[in-house]
Amino acid sequence: MAKINVLSREITINSQNGGDYISLTDIARFKDAKRTDYIIMNWMRNRNTIEFLGIWEQLNNPDFNPIEFDGIKSQSGLNSFILTAKRWIESANAIGIISKAGRYGGTFAHKDIAFEFASWISVEFKLYLIKEFQRLKDEEHRQLGWDIRRNLAKINYRIHTDAIKEHLLPLELTQKQVNVVYASEADVLNMALFGKTAKEWRIKNPGTKGKIRDKANVSQLVCLSNLENLNASFISENLPQPERLIRLNKIAIQQMKLLINDSGVKLLKGKEK
């Protein structure tokens, strides 16, 4: 569940059926905070609304009941005609609108439908709603991309440490000795890419939380992932550490020259800000 603020109104968004569903109840409060159900029902009884809902269901819902839809549409326009969200869902087997009970309940609709409802409420409100919704999606996309890159680095680091364990660690080492080897190998990558060890970075950045890799930019994270895989391969080939460091440093320089000029990486950097 996520929330956005539109013209000082809090709007709830839920993920449902593989899509984003926006609270019609919250949107209706912009018009009348005390009669949200009546406002939604009044909108749904409109013939244009029914035709829109029917077309949306036909495009997105293979289990939509067209026969019931035709019956509902034929009644629209009559003074006695009433259509609630619950009736629409149950009669037509609709999925575009969801009705929830309870404290966090209300009437929700797929974003396509919610934007249509918002337009009926207020054109101004609709435009601000779309703007804030897109801002939320951009932020989610940026966070997802960052999480994927960080997780990729973690996975590759696991490959790297497994190679160290298999090829560089003699038997019967104490845990302290093991940690020394791991730290040493981690600094091979730090030196190759950042030009300094973790200890040297901490000395130059007193009071800074995290590690040197936590401050890496997108290009450096991509390059780091590649270096971890390469170093694991070099270790399995029994190459001595000094030779590996020289090779990795040359590769890091070459890759960073390419990455800093890559348009895709530049785009990721822009979203990262």
Brief account:
With 273 residues, the protein is an alpha+beta fold.
Structural commentary:
- A hairpin with a 5-residue loop joins strand 4 and strand 5 (106-110).
- With 273 residues, the chain is α+β, with helices and mostly antiparallel strands.
- The protein is elongated and about 85 Å long.
- It has twelve helices and five strands.
- Helix 3 (47-60) packs antiparallel against helix 4 (66-75) and helix 7 runs parallel beside helix 10 (218-236).
- The relative contact order is 0.09.
Largest sheet: 5 strands, antiparallel
Query: What is the succession of H and E elements?
Result: EEEHHHHHEEHHHHHHH
Q: What overall geometry do the principal axes of the alpha carbons give?
A: elongated
Helix content: 55-70%
- Overall mean pLDDT stands at 83
Distance between the first and last residues' Cα: 24 Å
Task: Outline the secondary-structure elements.
Layout: E1 2-6, E2 9-16, E3 19-23, H1 24-28, H2 36-44, H3 47-60, H4 66-75, H5 85-92, E4 97-100, E5 106-110, H6 111-121, H7 123-167, H8 175-194, H9 198-204, H10 218-236, H11 241-259, H12 263-272
Antiparallel strand pairs: 1-2, 2-3, 3-5, 4-5
Helix pairs in contact: 3-4, 6-7, 7-10, 8-11, 10-11
Features:
elongated, 273 residues, 12 helices, 65% helix, alpha+beta
